[in-house]
UniProtKB/TrEMBL annotation:
GO terms for biological process: transmembrane transport. InterPro entries: MetI-like, MetI-like_sf. The chain crosses the membrane at residues 21-47, 67-93, 105-124, 159-178, 199-221, 255-273. Keywords: Cell membrane, Membrane, Transmembrane, Transmembrane helix, Transport. It comes from the Bacteria. Residues 70-276 form the ABC transmembrane type-1 domain. This is Spermidine/putrescine transport system permease protein. It is a multi-pass membrane protein. GO terms for cellular component: plasma membrane. Its main location: membrane. It comes from Anaeromicropila populeti. It is found in: Cell membrane. Pfam families: BPD_transp_1. Belongs to the binding-protein-dependent transport system permease family. CysTW subfamily.
Length: 288
């Protein structure tokens, strides 16, 4: 290829992908590199970050207090994921296979929460569940309770907030996988005498397991980092890893340790995505 032809082919490509590369480099790659480098930095006597490299930040992650939060985070994320699967699967299956004129409306109801900031919606739950909130007023009006009940500031309300925020992330990949189901396979299963639960276990579930897996990743990973849900609804009684990172960058003023925690969280994300790929998952379901 002549030099002129090479220039004529490379220039249009550079014009098209150049802005994207610059955008990704400036807003994603460089910040991630900065966080990675900071995770190996040290603090001086005045809690200022100094570029004296050490691995003590990663060693500090093995503190028993932190391990308690890791375990608690995993429990909250796992329960949140299981609840989202249990609620989202029948709901999504009905939407995806329904011929009703309300199909688009039901799907839109899943998307609409994205139009409002999740922080505002979580504060709405705090108002609803508070001692002077609507729920307590309704229970007292119906004479179910004699006084106010404290629903907030426990693990249960934290999980409720997580499920509320992350439910759509389970529905969307499930919808994609369920909608792709071949109707002929379902009819063939019925013709061969399989009952509905047998059709589900042997045909429907195996064909939609990729959607369940991708939805689980999209719910499980954010559950580890949604610190604002644990702060507002949990009141500090059900912290997740995100709360630990937040405190290191704010009140703890230990940015290197916070950066190390962030790198570990990123590593968990990449590990789960790689596992998803190994299992033959469709990366489009993860938005990749």
């Amino acid at each position: 290829m002549s030099r002129r032809k090479w220039k004529s082919s490379i220039v249009p490509s550079a014009i098209m992908i150049g802005p994207v590369v610059l955008w990704l480099g400036f807003f994603i790659i460089i910040p991630l590199l900065y966080v990675f480098i900071m995770s190996f930095c040290s603090l001086d006597s005045h809690y200022n970050v100094v570029f004296k490299f050490t691995v003590s930040n990663y060693q500090g992650l093995l503190d028993s207090n932190y391990i308690h939060i890791y375990v608690q985070s995993l429990i909250i994320a796992l329960i949140t994921t299981i609840i989202c699967i249990g609620l989202a699967y029948p709901f999504t299956f009905y939407i995806a296979r329904s011929q009703s004129k309300y199909k688009k409306l039901l799907y839109m109801l899943v998307i609409i929460p994205f139009w409002t900031n999740s922080l505002i919606r979580i504060y709405g739950w705090r108002t609803f569940l508070g001692t002077n909130g609507w729920l307590n007023h309704i229970l007292q009006y119906l004479h179910v309770t004699n006084g106010s009940i404290e629903f907030l500031f426990n693990r249960g309300t934290t999980i409720l907030g997580m499920v509320y925020c992350l439910f759509p992330f389970m529905v969307l990949p499930l919808y994609t996988s369920i909608e792709k189901l071949d109707v002929n396979l379902l009819e063939a299963s019925s013709d061969l005498g399989a009952k509905k639960y047998q059709t589900f276990l042997t045909v429907i579930f195996p064909l939609t397991v990729s959607g369940i897996f991708s939805g689980s990743i999209m719910v499980f990973i954010p559950s580890l980092g949604y610190f604002f849900v644990a702060n507002i609804l949990g009141g500090g009684n059900s912290d997740v890893i995100g709360n630990l990172i937040q405190r290191q960058f704010q009140s703890g003023n230990n940015w290197p340790l916070g950066a190390a925690l962030s790198i570990i969280l990123i590593a968990i994300t990449l590990l789960l995505v790689k596992l998803y790929q190994k299992c033959g998952g469709d990366m489009e379901n993860l938005g990749v």
